[in-house]
Structures are given as C-alpha cells and as structure tokens.
C-alpha cells in the first residue's frame, strides 16, 4: 500500500480546494477497495529502463514479476516501481522493437537501472488483427497497413474514418466521386488501392471488433479505437470473402488486459469550425444590379409570359418580374416601378444570411474509460458524450457506453462478454444559401430575410395577387418566412444502437484453440418531422385542402389546424455466429499456424412503416383524424388530391450469408513463409439454386526474410523481407438478381393488390471477380534510421457488372440490362517510408512519407471497342470506355470564339458552330473523329502525404501535408442557359464576348437569349469544352497538431500520461497548378471549413 | 503427437459435422429465405392478375404515345415558349426528323406488351379448370386486350395508315408475342399488324366480362371499343359501326354538361371527375418524350379550332381557360393536366354516328341513325335552353359535321393524328401548318413523316428499317 498511501498524502498536502481533494480521496479509496485483494503486504522495488544506444528513458516497457505475475509499465521517465511479494524475484522486461531482458532482484534497497537494446530483426511487434486472427507482422505475406492510436489522435473530430485521411497508405478519399449510372451513382467515399469494379458496390468492408459493421459509422467513438488495420491485397482481404473486393478496414477497440492495475483515461476537447462564406460561391460574384438587368431583358423578350399567363397552377414570380408586370399593366407608374427596382438593386441577402442562418460550429467531446485486470479477469468500462452545433445551426449529440470483460474460468477456458450502446439525436438547422435564395425557380440575390426592425420578411410561393384575394381572409397566412420557418419545421433523428457479443475460447491443449463467437446488433433509427402549426408546410397544406364555401355553405377545413408530425422508423438487426479452430505448432524449425471455421450471418433492414398525425398538440397530447381515402379538390390549381401521409406498411430486406473459411501459415527457420487462404460464401441473394450461390475465393502468398540468410551481410540494410501474394476477392451487389422478380404493393386508387416486375429475368448473372497480385519489400536501415515498405500491385476485374444496351422492344421498362459484361485492370505502387532524422535528448524529428500511385482502366465493356462517350464528359462518375481510366474527363475540342462571340468546336475536321452535329458526332466516332479530346483521369494518379513530427522536450508538433497529382477537374463557367433559365450567374459573365474583336482575348461566349438556334447545344458544347478541363495537382495543408506532455516528475506517481493538445485542420491549399485559384476537390462548392481544436487527455 | 491427434479429432469432427449440416441440409433452407419480403416470382393466376392490375406502373397511366399529339394540329406553341424548348422538341414541332433514344413512346408501349406476353406464356402452364375458369379467362382476356391496345397505339404512331391497296407491303410495327429477350425484333407489314390487333382484341372480347370493376381494367365493352377504334382507323366502317354498337349496347352513359354528379362547376380547372361514367377504359398519355410540347401550361389551342365552338357549347367553358390572348386546355378526364387517352362512350357514339353516315348511301335510315347518335351526344354538350338539334339529309354534310364534332369532343386524346392520316387516305387533303418567327412549315398529306421516326437506338440495336 506504500505508493497508494504516498499518493494520497501528497494530495492532502496539496493546495487543492477541499471538495476537489475529497473527490480524489474518495476515488482513490474506491480503487483501494477494488484492489484490496490484489495489493497485499509487499516489498517495493524501483528502477529505470533506458535505451541501450541513446541512453534515453524507455517509456511503456512491460515489467512482469516471475513470482506474482503482476505486470507494470515504465512511465515517461523510464522509471518503474513494483511491489513484490517475496524476494528474490526475477523481472522480465519487454518492449516492442527491443530484445527482451531480465533482472534478478535480490534486495529492496537497490535501484535497478537496466538498458534495453533494439531488436534489429523485429519489425513492429504489434500484432496485426485481420478480424479472424492476430498475426505477427513479419509473418504476413499480404499487404496491410496499421494505423495506431497515436496516429489516429493526430486528427480530431467525431468520425473515425475521417481520421484515416492523409495518414493511410493506399487509401484515398474520393471527394465528389460517384459510382456509375448503373450502380445508382452512389457516393464512392473511400477507395483502397483504386477500383476493382465498374458497376458494383464501391465501398470497403468495415469490420468492428471481428465482425462486419452495418450500423452508422458515426456511432463509433474515435476515443474507443485502439488501432485500425487496412487489408489491402487479396491475401489479406480474401479471408473476408465476397464483400472484400474493395479492401477491408478492421477497427479494433481498446480492451482491458490481464494483470493490469486500474487505468483511468480521460479525453476532452473542443472543436470550433469556421462558418462557410457564401461570398465564395460563384453565383454570388455577379452583381445584384446585373441580375436585375437580365431579368428586365428576359421580361422584355416575353420569357416570363408562360408563368404570368398561367392561371392554373399560379406560379410565383420574382419580385422584379412582379414589378415589371405591374408597370406593364399600369397598376403602378413607370417612375414608381423603376424606383422600386433601383431599390432592389441595392439589396443583397448575403449579409443577412450570414447573421440569421450561420454560426461558427462547435463540437465538444468528453470521454472516460476505466480498465483493469487481475490474473483471471480483465475488464473495461467506458463512456463518452459528444455535442455538436453545426455552422447551419443544426445540432446533434451522441453518447456511448461500452464494456468488455474477459474471464478466465479455467486455465484453458475463457469467456468474453462485451456490450456497446449508442444513443444519438440530431435536429435540422437552417436551409442553405442556395435553397433560400431560389424563388420561382430562379436565383434571387436581392432577396432579404428580415426588415430593419428585425421582423421576418414573407415570400409568396404562389402568385401574389392570387394569395391576396383567395378566400377573402378566411385562409391562413400563405407567406413563407425563411428567417423563422426553420425554427418551426424541424426534423429530428434519434438513433439507438446496441451491440452485444460473447466469445468462448477453449484450448484443450497447447497449440489448439477452439472458439465460438456470437454477436447481435440492433440499430433503431427514428426520423420525425414536426411541422408546427405556424410553419409554412402546415399552413400551405391546410390552405390547399380547404374547401371554400359560398353563400350559406360553410368553409370546410379538411386538414385540422395544429402541427403535423410524421415519423418513420427503420431497424437494422444483424447477428453473426462463428465457430473457429486455431492451431499453432512449432516443430523445431517449422512453424505452422492454421485456422478453419464456419460462419453464419444475417443482416436485416426493416422499415417499420411511416405514419403522419395531423392536428398534433403536445400539451395536452392530442391529435385529430383526417380522411386519407377521399380525394379533395385543392385550392390554387384545382387539382384533385388525397391528403398526404397515408400510413405505409413496412418492408424488410434480409441478407443471409453462410461462409466456410480457412487460412494456413507455414514458416521455416523464420525465413521462409508460405500462406494460403480459402473461403466460400453463399448468400440468399442469388436465387435459383444453391450451387450458383456459392462463390469460392482463395489466395496464396509467400515471404522471404533475406536478411536472416547466412549469406546476407549487407550492414546498411540489416533487415529486409520480400513478399508476394496472389488471390481472388469477390464483389456482390445485393440489388441484382437473375430472377424475374416482382414487387408487391397495392394500387392506391383501386385498392387492388398489384405486382410489378422490376428486373427482367437475367439467369446468366454471376458474382464479380477481382484478381490481385501484390509484390512487396519491407526493409529497415541500420539503427532504423529509415524503414518502410515498397509494394507493387496489379488488379484485374473480370465478370464485372455492366449496363448492356439491349432491344428494349422486349421489355421497355429499362433502357439497359445489367450483365457480367466488363473487365478492368488496375495497378499501382504504395510506398511508405519512416525516417528518424534527428534523435537527441531534448529534440527529435521523425518524418513519414506516403506515396501512392494508382491507375485503373476499362479493358472490356460490352464488346472490345464499345464506347459510351455521351456519358464521358462529367468526370465525377465511373464511365466505362475501353482503354480509358474509369474516372476520366473528355472534352469537346476547343476552337476559340468566332467573330460573333460563339464558341467553336470541330466537326469533320473543320471549325463548326453546329453544336447538334458536334454532339451527335461523339457518339459515332468518339475521340477518333477529332471532335472530342481525351483529357485524362479525374482521380489523382499520385497521392499521399508527408507527416513530420518534431519533439522538443515535452512539446510535440506534428503536421501533415497532403498532395494529389496527375489528374484533371472541370471548372464551371458562365452559361446563358443557366442565367436565363435559373438565374445562375458566374464571374466569367464579366469576361464574356461583347463586341467584335473580344474573341482575341476571351474564351467566354457572348450572352444569348433562348432564341439562338442551337441554344441548348451551344451551352452544352461550351460547358464541356476542353478550355474548362484544368490540371488538378495540388498540395494541401491537412492539419497541424501540437501536444504538450504534462506527466512531470512531480505528478508521475499519479498521472501515467497526460497531454494538452491543440489542432488546426483544413488549413487550405498551399500549392496548386490551376491559375483560377480553385480547389480541385471542391471546384463548385464550399471547401471543408477550417477547424481549431483544443483538448487534453490523460490517464492515471 | 499421438495424444495431440486424439484430442484434436473429436473437436474437429464435431465442428466439421456442424459445418456440414449447416452447409448441406439447413443451409439450403437458410439461403432460400427471401431477400425482400415484398418480392416474389409471379407464377399463379393471382400473381398474373396483380401484374395486369398495375395501372400506375405498367398498364394504364403515363403510357400511350405523346408523339402523335405533339405532331398533330390541335395546338400551337408561342414563339417565346418555342425558344425555350430543347432541340428535340423544336425539331418534332416542325416535323423534322431527329435522333432520339430511350425512354420514349416505343419503350412505354412495349412494357405492358411484355407483361401481357409474360401472363399469356405463364398461364399456358396453368390448367384451366371449372374452379379457376373465370380467373383464367380474365387474365388471358386482359392480356390479349392490353397487347392489342398498345399494338394499335404503336401502329398509329410508327406506321402509315391502313390502305388495303398497299397494307401487305407497308412497313408495320414489331409484333412482339413472347417475353424472351433473345427473340429478334422484326417489323411486320401494316396488314399483319392490324390482323394481330383484331385477333387479340376478339379473343379478349370473348373472355372478358361485360363491365369491369374499375375502368383501369379491360372488359368486353372495352374490347368492342378497341375493335371499333381499330376498324375506324382502317376505314372498315361497317365493322367499326358493328363493334361500337355492341359496346354501346352494354354501356352508353353520358355526362350531361348542363349539370351532372360527375362534373364540377364548368369554369373551374379540371371540372371532370376522374373515372367518370363515360369512361369505358382508362389510359393516360405519357409524360416523357415530346410531352413537354403539349403540356397544358405551354400548348395553346389552335385559334381556328377554338372559334368553331359556338357560344352555347358548354365545352367552351368546360374544356378551356384563357391564358394571355389564347386558350389552354383543362378538360381532361384525368382531372389533372395529364391527357386522357382511354375509350369513352362519347367516342363510340361518334364512331357509330360517323360509320352510320358513311353507310348512308343505300339506306336513308342510316343517316337518321347518325343524326340520332350525334344529337344524343350534343344535347349533353350544349346549353339545354337553346340547343338546336343538327338536321340535314346530305350524307357528306353529316359526315363533315360528325368529323367536326369528333375533333371538338376528343381533342388532346391522341386521336387526331390517326384521324388526319385516315382522312387524307380518302382525299380530304389536310395540310398541317406551323407558323414560327414568320416562317411557315407545312406537312403535306402523304408525307412519309406520318409514320413517325422510330428511336435511333432501336434502329441501331435491332437493325429494323427506319421510317
């Protein structure tokens, strides 16, 4: 009890306030009680562990007593103190990257100072967790990247996956990129080593503590995560089978350890996110006066006549058009109208928008974790809470609680239980600038939201004259008040998730371990919209469903007054059951490790339906009923409608998988490693017969530790290992089926049950396959000054899903059919280098360089030479064209402006302004015809980052520069169609051709009205012309992190580690090739806002 | 090692056995669990009926061609509206061929044909018994009806009008009679196309009940109406009269525009009740393709046509609303801006009147029949107070008047294009004109464009000849 008592006495004499030390006192007391059984009368031994070469203290070395088995760790000063039951005893000292050492302890009064020497033959000795087994890094023949806790903590925020950005070799965040048109254009957020499919699913498989994670990734608190392993090649990923084609991200949470004293960790931080600046939006860079002049011009051309003459749906008109129409019909005088318009020209909604709808975002995070362990059990308890207020005033909060417990029942039998609970809630905030300034389908920059006295300004969403007269005041106010409405019409989301798991490990004899694991997960999400009685949504609906009476007939309100509440609930339930045998045996120079197992898995997503309640009141709780089955003639356009919100029944989707898997590792003399893995997956998706459901996947790998050979004597590189692997992984798109499947529901008009065939029978559909080859070398120079790995890989996808044009006379419901029609090839190089540039007592400097090269291209699509050029112009979705990158930009060849200010392209080798002919030519002759030019890939071919870590005494500074090279992006420009049709402007408007001769110094065409003969084609041509494809190369200052270590000599007894840290993130681009100053990742929208974080973490 | 093996074996056998049970026996059942709870493979008569009842998604709504209406002459486009159209609509408006692709009228019409073929094929494997006879007949009759209905729509759109002199050689439509997508598409002749339509429609008439439970569903009356439409467009007027007469014998309700439960105030938007008593079979024109040309908010009613409505014609108020200096249409039986294209009693009455008049040469009683039908309709359309029945004894004059009433009654229902085609076959010499920015575009009576261009991608994939 000696050190505990010492710590307490120190607290008592410290100048802390009474209440503070009372809490601490109590706390320590509890700890003492908890460990009363463990801490008995003992002898105290102290010492220090230092580095054999640098003589610097070694932090975190494990010291285990031979007699009692108790384990402690050295602190930041390398010091340790241990309580031994009896003397003599032996202390075993181990630390990652060092050779083990032992101290014979004979006397309590000696200070045991011991040196540890680095083990040159051991690479990182952190075990790599694949989700099925933990393997020593040097036995891995595949490609894996481990991101440890320290690296994860260099970034802040609430999303764990975001912390992989910029620090993970081979992983790219694909900003703004989507899948192909066939895959539904789903976002392709994270890609590991590029693509392996064209139309299949794109995102990597995420594993949380050994099982696939189906819930919301935001449920995982980054503070709980111990490390993340990225399985990149087939040898690493194929054990995960059919869904591992895009790589696997294995998230491992922190666990308690056996024989570990109580550890309390606290982390808390505050993140401030800068509010976005609407001035950075391109449309705001055209002056209000110019927008109004355009509206006046369009009005004079009769552009708004269709809307003005429309007395059926009575569309709204923008304020300027309304004034112009009043002037035309003589309702107001010329002079008055012009005065009003001039007044509008001086208005600008941005400043008000800033004040009313934007704030700096604030995120608060708190987490607390307790862990410990005795010789027969280990445990961990943790909880945390997040509170976020976003820049758009939306809020969210999340709380987690987790426990892990492992009990050694017998020497060879242990049971683990774990539970994880998440509760989060979010609430919508203000609409964005573009939504708010869009009126009658046009951008209205002069729209303001509040009067000088602060009262909200109302906007008519139908024709003003109609709203002024309809119902003679018997209807509710029909104006929309943007400044107030978002506070009245709120959508809340509430999410709860529970994960429970149990594992039994039985080791009947040394080497064999049998385990059974079960996990149950349930996520419940409720989305509730509550449109208050005063909200526009409610008032508009009530008004439209009012049947106005006349004479003696009274008005009928078919929708009762009061709020409208609609709710939908989705549930996700999954279970996994896994049985696995692990066998490990050493036969002299032979090492064998085999695992084999079977797995059952079901994930079910169900929608519990949705229901809407009208006339909702909270206090007292009440509602009114409406008639959903009757049709009513609505006001405004007289159309006949039902009241929205008919109760819907739910649906469910169930994915079932059965898998068998096996993996074997064999090493000879620790020099030669061979591995193989095999897996078969079956799912309930592919209907017809069970044989077709099975999909066998396999991989083999080999490794050679050259540096362990007797002939190897290269002193400069004392450690080198070669490895190679080959394997197949699969891809399954859960939405595709070979059967003529119909969906059942009922016709809302006839109430008859109906079915609809949504997919044509497609019996030849098979699994996609991806083959990957990986060759790598791991090395380390003398003294580990530089160590790292260089890997080459090659991916080949076959039987990939592709959209096939077919004779839709057959069916007509789709223009294309999905078949296994495409092949692709990808490849690249991953380089990871870490160097210890300077190591001194008070100063050190480490650098990490990540370099990735990746390309991918389509090798077959439909037929060997098929091209879908018409879809190629975008660059943000996967477009398969044989021989070209999957994401690429193609553009119309630019021929400058002609003397009338019209953009010119090429048709049959000649300059042309026949845009329809140009547009058609690309489908016929592609890039061969000279009309279209291939620009290049739109995803970076080279990317990575440089991380530097500088330490001076207790201060550590790390910063990350990310680079993306070798790609193109498309910039937007001025478009007459956008300006006329939707009022969307662009600063290029001021560079437009205005008079003959301008074509010599500008590329921006003349502004034209829609009577231009090929108005749509002209705009389309210019938008996709090659002048707008810019090189995207850039370097970004990703983050800067400063940490100060608080664990001082004074506090060491109590504080194991402590840190105050600050972080700056998204610091912007520091170098780019484009001269326009555009951010190639976000050319048309806000770039991620700068963030400042302040926080502290400590454990004791 | 021996001990090791002994201990190893039972565990391995145990786990292996569990794995095998899971994989072989239980596994099949486990994996046969449906992926979604509302998905199935349609196999029995109930399933097939449900497919045919999918009115919104496949069989009735947003289904019939819009290209025929946008090519016809009941409307025009204001210059500022024209300027804002996309290039394809601009070309279609002035009858210039343009490459267009999926989705379109072609794909929309062949989808219900697929459903019909699937139902006919699948029900072949179901024994017709006394127990399921009515369900079996209903499925098959409906399938035949839908197939004939959409074949006729396609024939009106993509083939020239039926001409007995050349029908065997004129290019008709693709008669798709199976659901197998490996079967090639081949264009039949106009003659074969109409023969197939008549064959299917007659089978449908034989199997379907007199009246449906809902006008989304086909019926015997609808099948007779379909045959009347078919024969009218073939100019086989005696058969057209016969089938119109058969249909009207079952159902002949008319809405009285002077006041009726199926009618709101005439001045409001969309005064007609949807699925009203005149509707024998309900379909709507599609809202893709060229439909943006004929959207009620954009299309203006032809001024000459507009002026042909007399002041006491209630349709003037019920059908139209003033928009600027012109009129837009609001009289659709969809009770919305979408165009109704189904079969009504009024249409059949006009068919019977026209055919009676045309058969009036040798029998003056036929002219009386024509006038009776015509006046029977008009009395419900004109103001009751001052309605003057149509009289006369000149066959030509009566035909002229019936045709005029036909145009006034059935505008924006996808029928005008077919009428122009068939009437030009008998030398009425209808020349279509569009005036645009002081340029006049015309479409001559026998222009090849009357068989509208087939989608470009269909031509490319199937190799069938373009019109």
What does this structure look like?
The complex is a heterodimer of chains A (1100) and B (467). By secondary structure, chain A is mostly beta strands. Chain A contains 17 helices and 56 strands. In chain A, the strands form 14 sheets. Chain A has a 22-stranded antiparallel β-barrel. Chain A is globular, with a radius of gyration of 34 Å. Chain A starts with a helix and ends with a strand. By secondary structure, chain B is mainly alpha-helical. In chain B, a hairpin with a 2-residue loop joins strand 7 (320-323) and strand 8 (326-329). The model of chain B is unreliable at 1-8 (pLDDT under 50). In chain B, strands 2-6 form a two-stranded antiparallel ribbon. A two-stranded antiparallel ribbon of chain B has the order 3-4. In chain B, strands 5-9 form a two-stranded antiparallel ribbon.
Record field, number of beta strands of chain A: 56
Largest sheet of chain A: 22 strands, antiparallel, barrel
Broad shape of chain B = globular
- Decide which structural class fits the backbone of chain A: mainly beta
Give the helices and strands of chain B as they follow along the chain.
HEHHHEHHHHEEHHHEEHHEEEHHHHEEH
Q: Summarize the largest interface: chains and residue counts.
A: A-B, 83 and 91 residues
Describe the main β-sheet of chain B briefly.
Answer: 2 strands, antiparallel
* Oligomeric state of the chains present here: heterodimer
Q: What is the structural class of chain B?
A: mainly alpha
Number of helical regions of chain B = 18
Shape of chain A: globular
Reconstruct the topology from this structure:
The complex is a heterodimer of chains A (1100) and B (467).
Chain A (H helix, E strand, L loop, with lengths): L1 H12 L4 H17 L8 E9 L10 E4 L5 E3 L5 E6 L4 E6 L6 E5 L5 E6 L11 E2 L4 E2 L8 E5 H4 L18 E3 L16 E3 L12 E4 L2 E2 L12 E7 L2 H4 L10 E6 L6 E14 L14 H13 L4 H5 L9 H10 L5 H12 L4 H8 L3 E13 L3 E13 L5 E16 L2 E15 L5 H4 L1 E2 L2 E2 L15 E2 L3 H6 L9 E2 L1 H7 E18 L5 E20 L4 H9 L1 E2 L8 E2 L5 E25 L2 E28 L4 E3 L7 E2 L6 E2 L10 E17 L3 E12 L6 H4 L1 E10 L14 E13 L9 E6 L6 E7 L8 E13 L5 E20 L10 E24 L3 E19 L26 E5 L12 E3 L2 E3 L2 H11 L6 E6 L4 E11 L2 E11 L2 E3 L5 H7 L32 H9 L5 E3 L2 E12 L11 E9 L3 E4 L18 E9 L1
Chain B lengths: L1 H30 L7 E2 L4 H8 L2 H5 L7 H5 L3 E2 L2 H5 L3 H7 L11 H20 L8 H26 L12 E4 L12 E3 H18 L12 H15 L2 H14 L28 E3 L18 E2 L1 H5 L7 H5 E4 L2 E4 L13 E2 H14 L5 H18 L13 H15 L6 H10 L6 E5 L2 E5 L12 H7 L5
Antiparallel strand pairs in B: 2-6, 3-4, 5-9, 7-8, 10-11
Helix pairs in contact in B: 2-7, 2-8, 7-8, 8-9, 8-10, 9-10, 10-11, 11-14, 14-15, 14-16, 15-16
